[in-house]
Amino acid sequence: MIKKIFSGVQPTGNLHLGNYLGAIKNFVKLNNNKDNECIFCVVDLHAITTKQDPKELKRNIRETAATFIACGIDPKKSIIFNQSMVPAHAEGAWIFSCVSRIGWLNRMTQFKEKAGKDKEKASVGLYSYPVLMAADILLYDATHVPVGEDQKQHLELCRDIAQKFNNEFIKDNFLRIPEPLIQKEFSRIMSLKDGKKKMSKSDPSDLSRINLSDDKDQILNKIKKAKTDTLPIPNSHQDLKNRPEAENLLGIYASLIDKDLNYSIDEFKNKNFSEFKDKLSEVAIEKIAPISKEIKKLLNDEKYLDEILKDGSNKAQEISSKKIKEIKEIIGF
Ligand code: AQP
To answer: Hey, which residues are catalytic here?
Structure first.
């Protein structure tokens, strides 16, 4: 069976190692499989659920597209586009918000985390964010959605929306029920400053994350300053319990070299963190520095990036306009 892949990344700046190891690395693998049809979207409509500076947003849209390409997604094989260029996403989001139930959205933990204590002041868009995400996926009949662990709940909501629409309009299998593709290990990379907090673009401390645009010296400095504890590296996974920073760094190392956590524990057991950090810096620089260099090179060619996004948007428009037309007919418009 041909796998139809859809996933998105918000152009909110500072794409980081968590985005790479949790999602984009997997996008590249899927792109490289000749049997897959992949669509990777710069989800700029999602980005404006929190306040964005217009000039920065424009730059970040190009930078996210550049990051996709620099990481290894081939725009000749996969569709790369930005969401705001394709009207069906906003139309679909409205229609699916009428299918979705308030009780379902009230359970979304990401809204609670992002809105924080002052929920009343959060945008309505931030609340209904997962409905727009459902539209993104359902418009393309995606069979598989590669995401980090933090998006699992949103994907379950998408499946519920599709099921309810199909049931309500007695259209079995009209909306394809997508499967999540979440890596078993390292699907949630944590902050370098706090092993209990997700590595995130919006963390005010730049030292909390390794950005995909960081150069060699920045990577070295951030790993040097990354929080650890006073104990040496243990012999077993079990002994990493209650040592979130140590577990996170060992996990990052393993994921960067495509191994599992036991492999990095075995390699560094009983050693101290300074020795481990030297090796971690080496592999992180080896992986990230070429990506960072390529992003900078691509950003110097705005015309090329704009053409990729335009071409991708035309292709996305062709697919999604057919689906939204069918959806409207089913509803009775
Ligand atoms: N720390 C992470 N570990 C693993 N995967 C992650 N992802 C994000 N952070 C981690 C995955 O990256 C993809 C794109 O995410 P996004 O940028 O669209 O939104 P996000 O999840 O809200 O990312 P951030 O960094 O936390 O952004 P801000 O701070 O702007 O809210 C998704 O597949 C996500 O799972």
So the answer is: 114, 198, 201
Task: Give the Cα separation of 302 and 47 in Å (integer).
Answer: 20
Residues 19, 48 share a domain: yes
Q: Give the number of the atom of ligand 1 that is nearest the alpha carbon of residue 190.
A: 1
Q: For a pocket test of ligand 1, which of 150, 192, 202, 252 has the largest count of ligand atoms closer than 8 A to its C-beta?
A: 150
Domain containing residue 96: CATH number: 3.40.50.620
pLDDT tens by residue, the chain, 333 residues: 889 999 999 999 889 999 999 999 999 999 999 999 999 999 999 999 999 999 999 999 999 999 999 999 999 999 999 999 999 999 999 999 999 999 999 999 999 989 988 889 999 999 999 999 999 999 999 999 999 888 999 999 999 999 999 999 998 999 999 999 998 888 899 999 999 999 999 899 999 999 999 999 999 999 999 999 989 999 988 889 899 999 999 999 999 999 999 999 999 999 999 999 999 999 999 999 999 999 999 999 999 999 999 999 999 999 999 999 999 999 999
What is the 200 CA–ligand 1 centroid distance (Å)?
Answer: 6
Domain carrying residue 140: 3-186+302-331
Whether residue 212 is contained in a domain is answered as: yes
324 and 286, same structural domain? no
Residue nearest to atom 35 of ligand 1 (CA): 148
Number of DSSP helices (H) and strands (E) in the chain, helices first: 14, 5
Residue 172, helix vs strand vs coil: coil
Pocket of ligand 1 (CB under 6 A): 9-10, 12, 18-19, 22-23, 147-148, 150-151, 187-189, 198-202
222 and 80 within one domain: no
83: nearest Cα among 25, 142, 40, 121: 40
Alpha-carbon distance 46 to 306, whole Å? 20
Helix (H) / strand (E) element for 179: namely: strand 179-181
Cα 151 to middle of ligand 1, angstroms: 8
Total number of domains constituting the chain: 2
